[in-house]
Amino acid sequence: MRKAELAKLIDHTVLGPETGRAAVERVCREAAEHGFYAVCVPPGYVALARSLLQGTPVRVGTTVGFPHGQHKPEVKAHEARLALADGAHEVDMVIDVGALKEGDRNRVLADIRAVREAAPRPAVLKVILECALLTDEEKVRGAELAREAGADFVKTSTGFASAGATVEDVALLRKTVGKALGVKASGGIRDYATAVAMVAAGANRIGASRSVGILAGAPE
User: What's the CATH number where 75 sits?
Assistant: First the structure.
């Protein structure tokens, strides 16, 4: 996969608790320079990112219920509304992992639907399943519920759990959602070979903080 093609699949990300204005400015500058699809920044920096990227094709994404997903649905919905008001194009929400593991289908659906209603299309909604904490059966159930609730993508990880994206998880999610939803591989993707393996397994978006290094290994 060539550099320009891969860049168009990458959400260039900076979400650590130490993130400040300088880091967001750097990520936006790099995204515009390298042609990344989007940036993903903390909610408090959405307006800044949108202003910095004005006039470029780079989209602005942010997180909701991050990183543990234990917020009430109403709080996640409010976060999503604020993000859109600040200029976000895309919202990556963390699923209620506990509800999913307990098999509480209605709670999971209500959680995702609250955010979907607060962020209607054309806003893009990605549902983070946090696969490292789930069995394969739970991953499948989570992806099915995300589809039922009207999400646009399922996403493997926050990057803050014990492990990030795996090829196996990406393939399982793609098999589950078919062509109906996108699959975003995120967490621990640090080089070109890993990124390409995720795409081959079915990912059509990559979340990474080391995006510039990933592209450095790609052919022109």
Answer: 3.20.20.70
